[in-house]
Specification:
Helix 2 links the parallel strand 2 and strand 3 (60-61). The protein has 286 residues and is of the alpha/beta class. It has helices at residues 20-29, 48-57, 88-114, 121-125, 137-144, 156-160, 173-182, 192-195, 207-216, 232-245, 278-283, and strands at 4-9, 32-37, 60-61, 64-71, 74-81, 186-189, 222-226, 248-251, 272-273. Helix 1 packs parallel to helix 2 (48-57). The strands form two sheets. A five-stranded mixed β-sheet has the order 4-5-6-7-8. Strands 3-2-1-9 form a four-stranded mixed β-sheet, with helices on one face.
Length: 286
């Protein structure tokens, strides 16, 4: 039987809706043998309990995390695989990113409160996200105060108040790549077509590929070739690029459970045979 891999999964420890045990149950049901939980800026899923649950589910778990990074004044996502989750440097980067992200959310909330919207910074600080919903704290708070009818609707306020994630002081790409390697991990560029405008008809050396080259020059060791937002043509080109340059191929569903569920609702839904990412699996000791 073909073994499948899903190396991009989010749980309730970041903005996913599912607990670790629920994700592992989905993986087992969908014949996913190799899994990486890559929560945003946290490795809390890799507790002793989480590792035990993976063993009980018969799923091979690759320690991972998805970091927000800044490069040339733009935000990107960097996946880190096989990292030492106890690395102090890794935990400091995660803590920094979490702090500056929440500072940005609080700044937006204060603007809304100043304008007379039905929000309160005092209430927000004591608010807790309901279990099983997903999303981040501010989106949940706006939903429960009645300002939005859905979690994703809350993102309109970021645009309305001109809050640009490219201006958040996340760790730099170069610093993050160095830290991941120091933590024995493999830095992999996440879903490039989600963050770099891609035109399938552009020239081989067009803007997408030039931007990608600039990112790879920072020392990135692999690319997430397989992703719900990548068409088959782009997947093929990215795999070819990885083979030409000796980079690792990765891929996954970017699963968030009931949050962001339009294309990413099934663990293992990309149906990625483990053989297509075997280089990365081997590098991570699997």
């Amino acid at each position: 039987m073909t073994q499948f891999a899903d190396l991009h999964i989010h749980t309730h420890f970041s903005d996913g809706s599912d607990r670790v045990d629920e994700v592992l149950a989905h993986a087992r049901e969908n014949h996913v043998a190799f899994l990486s939980i890559t929560d945003h800026n946290t490795v809390r899923a890799y507790s002793e309990d989480g590792l035990r649950q993976a063993d009980e589910a018969g799923v091979r778990l690759i320690p991972g995390v998805e970091l927000d990074v800044i490069h040339e004044n733009r935000q990107y996502h960097l996946l880190a695989y096989g990292v030492d989750v106890h690395s102090q440097a890794l935990r400091e980067v995660c803590a920094h990113n979490t702090r500056v992200q929440e500072e940005s959310n609080l700044s937006l909330l204060r603007c809304m409160e100043r304008d007379g919207l039905r929000v309160s910074e005092k209430d927000y600080h004591s608010y807790a996200i309901p279990q099983g919903r997903g999303g981040w704290k501010l989106l949940n708070y706006l939903l429960d105060t009645g300002l939005t009818g859905s979690l994703l609707e809350g993102t309109k306020y970021y645009k309305q108040y001109a809050f640009d994630s490219n201006k958040i002081e996340f760790v730099s790409l170069t610093e993050a790549v160095h830290m991941v390697k120091e933590a024995s991990g493999v830095p992999v560029l996440a879903h490039p077509a989600e963050q770099i405008p891609y035109n399938p008809y552009e020239a081989e050396h067009g803007a997408f590929w030039q931007t990608l080259d600039g990112l790879l020059a920072a020392g990135i060791a692999g690319i997430e070739c397989f992703h719900p937002l990548h068409g088959f043509g782009l997947q093929r080109e990215l795999v070819s690029l990885c083979r030409e340059r000796g980079l690792f191929c990765s891929g996954g569903t970017d699963y968030h459970g009931s949050f962001f569920n339009k294309q990413k609702q099934v663990v293992g839904g990309q149906m990625i045979p483990a053989s297509l990412v075997q280089g990365l699996l081997s590098r991570c000791g699997l």
